[in-house]
Amino acid sequence: MSDPSPVTTLTDDDCWEMLHAQEFGRLAFHLADEVHLVPINYAVDADRRLVFRTAEGSKLLGLTMNADVAFEIDEFTEDEATSVVIRGRARQLEHHEEAETELLPLRPWVNTAKFNTIVIEVDEITGRRFGLTRPWLHMKPHED
């Protein structure tokens, strides 16, 4: 009999539950011919979209030039690591749409003005949980 796999695929609902429980992740986007990866704080709305705010700058420019994005969150303990990745399309919300996001638990982590509300429409969501055996913890140095 073989050992069970240390990797478990999460259901879509498990992935969304983890996204709801977190508020910090990493956004990957294109800017010209480069891929950028930046930390953002976010919230999930009732339509299962990720929402965040940003200031004018390279992130907003990149999302305007190419809406394709990826986003990732993870967490780990001594025994397991979990990762959720989404792929989708980002767009800036219009004024009438922004009002719908006002009740989301979207809190800035730094005291900077962020007047642009962005939503990521999710095309694909995947998640995995890894059982950690950490074999190096069982290795003992040789004593002379």
From TrEMBL:
<protein>
    <submittedName>
        <fullName>Pyridoxamine 5'-phosphate oxidase family protein</fullName>
    </submittedName>
</protein>
<dbReference type="InterPro" id="IPR012349">
    <property type="entry name" value="Split_barrel_FMN-bd"/>
</dbReference>
<dbReference type="Pfam" id="PF12900">
    <property type="entry name" value="Pyridox_ox_2"/>
</dbReference>
<dbReference type="InterPro" id="IPR024747">
    <property type="entry name" value="Pyridox_Oxase-rel"/>
</dbReference>
